[in-house]
Amino acid sequence: MSLKFKRLGKTLIASGLTLALTSPTVLAEQPSLLNSSYDIARELFASYNEHFNDHWQEKTGQKVEIKQSHAGSSRQAQAIIQGLRADVVTYNQVTDVDILHERGKLLPKDWRQKLPNASSPYYSTMAFLVRKDNPKNIKDWDDLIRDDVDLVLPNPKTSGNGRYSYLAALGYAQLKFNKDEAKVDAFLRRFLGQVAVFDTGGRGATNTFVERGIGDALLTFESEIQGVITAFPDQEFQIVVPSSSFLAEFPVAVVEKPAKRNGNFELATAYLEHLYTQDSQRLLASFNYRVHDPVVKAETAANFPDLKLLTIEEIAGDWKNAMQVHFASGGKLDQLQRR
Amino acid sequence: MSNHKISHQQRIGDQPWLRRLLIGLAFLLVGVLLVVPLIAIFAQALSAGLNVFWVNVSDKYTLHAIGLTLLVAALTVPLNLVFGVFLAWLVTRFEFPGRRILMTLIDIPFAVSPVVAGLMYLLLYGSNGWVGSWLMEHDLQLMFAWPGIVMVTVFITCPFVARELIPLMQQQGSSEEEAALSLGASGWQMFRRVTLPNIKWALLYGVVLTNARAVGEFGAVSVVSGNIRGETNTLPLHVELLYQDYNLVGAFTSATLLAALALLTLVVKTFLEWRQQQSAS
Q1: Percent of chain A with pLDDT over 90
Q2: φ, ψ for residue A290, nearest 5 deg
Q3: CATH number 3.40.710.10 given to A126-246+307-337
Q4: What kind and span of H or E run contains A209?
Q5: Per-residue pLDDT tens for A218-253?
Q6: Is residue A6 within 8 angstroms of chain B, CB to CB?
Q7: Which CATH number among 3.40.50.720, 3.40.50.10140, 2.60.120.230, 1.10.3720.10 corresponds to the domain B49-280?
Q8: Where are the domains of chain B?
Q9: Which residues of B touch A258 (CB under 8 A)?
Q10: With a cut of 0.90, is the ipTM above it?
Q11: Residue of B81, B120, B144, B151 to mutate for A, most A C-beta atoms under 10 A
């Protein structure tokens, strides 16, 4: 009896080891590029990586393995500072790229000058996802502060996505009340008061709205909203694009120090530059991001309603100022949330 | 008189209706809290049919996650097995200053939240940490690679074997080992023929617990993994990743693999407990 079990144990361990050791690339060293990206860009880069690989193979005859790491972009930047050897970053927050220079000197201070359009190959804006037939008749920011409307958005404290929605609401209020601070604050206070759930990240907020069925409007990127509408056709969600919103840039950069150490600097640069070609821009537009290429812009105009896009400079001066005044501990966001 | 006394000594569960109620309640709670969610995992995983289930299992990234998880367990378990036996032997067979402190220190991984454990390793071995900056100069990558995952898993699971062995070895005492030595056995002979057979079942039980935790650890691993798909993604991390990708069936499929491992562990554990009792009596 016990002999049998001994034998069984041996076989089990042996088979476990074989599985562990022979499973692909656990230990193997392969030439590859690591892209550290934000949370909701998985599908986009899965597709772009294939597209880039075709191009690269045609050009050099070489195939690259492109690895992806996705999480909230502040957390991702922190991991790179702590030693994650990413070759490129593709984020949804300018500040998270800046921090790679400030904390680790991993890339030059003028990284935004390295690529066209301030190193932002595509952009998006903040819009609303509403339920079938828009039952609460939500049209613009004014409808979001109505008492009968519950909002879902990621927490501006922890998520870039949430910060953008907050700044978009702020920008709208500044336009409407001509920067009268008391009225703007009152608007924002009511806006924050209507929030039913503050999730920690973009995907979490989407799941709260879609899977748990909480809220009348989800505030997130226009691109994410279109993705949700396609992913859940039977729910018949609808998008509402407000009259004005925030220009959300998606900065990309080569993380020069690790990329050079990995011997990937040229490859990494090519990977990012290729985002600006017409084919790639068309691909980005198919993921519901707004792009700069004039031809693609004209082709896809029907999918991207016109609206007034406000930059961070117009709303809060610059990112540093926005972080200090609004999102720091004890800042505007904290003050306005006290009820 | 004596009758009267007995009726006073009745315990709470002695009335048949109350007993049935309590037992029923226990079963209901176990069902609602444990069994139903477990069944739900399997039901969800198979909701799109067996074919989709297999496609998800044989997905490149899922296979890699399985491999990495097994690798982590395969390295963690032997290491902690040796460490646990050594430590248990040390604190139960010898008297030395600091012995009590050592016994308390073993429990640190139980007391510390896994996330904190992960952060401790990151701050020490990450590129800004004391050891990390040295590692960086020598081009050694521990964090955000599989060695880091193994390191935190070893930390999290290191008390299990020692904690199983210490009470048993304390209770057994060292008289049999001393007898062996006095009859001329060498140290290794004594260990192999006297100590090991005595602690065999407790040791295996500790190994099973270590393995279960090593396979299932999420918090600490999540901190040092860096979330690189196909490289540093273990099975528990893979479940969360798939869930956030809206791939519910995929997420639940990976979850069934974990649940199956857990069930297997439970079966082995129950068997070992039974054997332990048998050998004790």
Answers
A1: 69
A2: -80, 140
A3: no
A4: helix A202-210
A5: 999 998 898 899 889 999 999 999 999 999 999 999
A6: no
A7: 1.10.3720.10
A8: 1-45, 49-280
A9: none
A10: no
A11: B144
